[in-house]
Amino acid sequence: MEKRQSSYTYEEILTCSRGEMFGPGNPQLPLPPMLMLDRITEISEDGGEYGKGQILAEYDITPERWFFDCHFAGDPVMPGCLGLDALWQMTGFYLGWLGLEGKGRAISVGEIKFSGMITPATKLVQFGVEYKRVMKGRLNLGIGDGWVKADGETVFTAKDLRVGAFKDA
Predict the structure, then answer these.
(1) pLDDT value of residue 1
(2) Are 7 and 42 contacting, i.e. CB atoms less than 8 angstroms apart?
(3) Among this protein's residues, is 71 annotated catalytic?
């Protein structure tokens, strides 16, 4: 088996956004500006709290990021849904990285807790997902818990993130 990479640059991540990394009909990341990852700093099949895999990524924040102008006028903050989407994006990427086939689609999240904000003053956002279970078969499914940190401080957690890889009928 070919050795998989354990980290990815922005340029490498963009090949996934264009559908080139895992092949047609398989998980791919969105293109900018919806791509919420600048780099994947670590990915492994056996790491994380549950020993069933993890992925860590980063996103550089500048005051020019597109969402600050519209959320909210005079009170800019990164929408929490974009952080959640980053965690789902990472889970879809993880399924493709494992070699699982099908188009990645977010399914659900069990619980989200917000405890801080990402503002234009933030420099670095870090994301992590630790997998509890990966189902391989008719339905390829990743289930994990995630977190988002702004300049090293946890600003929200998400439990039971679920992303499936669905094959065309």
Answers:
(1) 39
(2) yes
(3) yes
